[in-house]
Amino acid sequence: MASASLQFFAFILALFGVFGDITATLLPNWKVNADVGSNIITAITQMQGLWMDCTWYSTGMFSCTLKYSVLSLPIYIQAARTTMVLSCILSAFGICITTVGMKCTKLGGDADSKSHACFAGGVCFILAGIFGLIPTSWYTREIISNFLDQTIPESSKHEPGGAVYIGFISAGFLLIAGVIFCTSCFKKQQGAWIHPPKQHHFPAAEQESNTGYNLKDYV
């Protein structure tokens, strides 16, 4: 079974994954387009996210516009919204469940209950990592395909922003944490199967002697 320190390390990774997941979901820089004009004053950086589009000017001004219409958005953005929100919810559930099931805590009851809680929390982390990895991969694929498309003008092409990289890293942290928690519970159950509880057996000669002694008593 994994030690308490290894579970604590996995819990720290999961915390970083949760915070990164939430940050990536809210950040507006999923893709970035930088256009620099002939004058430095006209330099702007346009950023697009899941919930808003922002523009940063070289003069220091910053403006954002929320995406109110859901049906007008591309399908990959709609899917990214849904899966990222599910990833945040599952990872939050995983944090709550593993807090109860970790060995270093006094919650959760006996060892079997804590083991089941750790396994359930690990499954939540793995699902959260998968749900976080799908939109980031799909979003990156769309950015790269549009960037390589010769029919799209240069001014309309974008590059992956910081939120995409944060999403990838957070998904990796959640997947690693989930595997560690699930493996710790599996090893405990496997150890119980390999080393069953010992049973005390009396020697056959002793049983025969006891039987003979009992028969003599009735003679």
Word description of this protein:
Helices cover 62% and strands 11% of the residues. With 219 residues, the protein is α+β, with helices and mostly antiparallel strands. It has a domain at 4-28 and 73-193: Butyryl-CoA Dehydrogenase, subunit A, domain 3.
What keywords describe this structure?
Butyryl-CoA Dehydrogenase, subunit A, domain 3, 5 helices, disordered C terminus, 62% helix, five-stranded antiparallel sheet, alpha+beta, elongated, 219 residues
Query: Any idea of the CATH topology of the domain at 4-28 and 73-193?
Result: Butyryl-CoA Dehydrogenase, subunit A, domain 3
**Helix/strand order, N-terminal first:** HEEEEHHEHH
Query: Class of the domain at 4-28 and 73-193, according to the CATH hierarchy?
Result: Mainly Alpha
Overall pLDDT level = 80
**How many helices in DSSP terms?**
5
CATH architecture label name of the domain at 4-28 and 73-193: Up-down Bundle
Task: Determine the strand fraction and express it as a percent band.
Answer: 5-15%
Number of strands: 5
Biggest pleated-sheet summary: 5 strands, antiparallel
User: In terms of per-residue confidence, which ranges show pLDDT below 50 for 5 or more consecutive residues?
Assistant: 36-42, 188-196, 205-209, 215-219
Give the spatial strand order of the biggest sheet: 4-3-2-1-5
Oligomer: single chain
Classify the helix fraction into a percent range.
55-70%
- The assigned structural class equals alpha+beta
Measure the end-to-end span: 57 Å
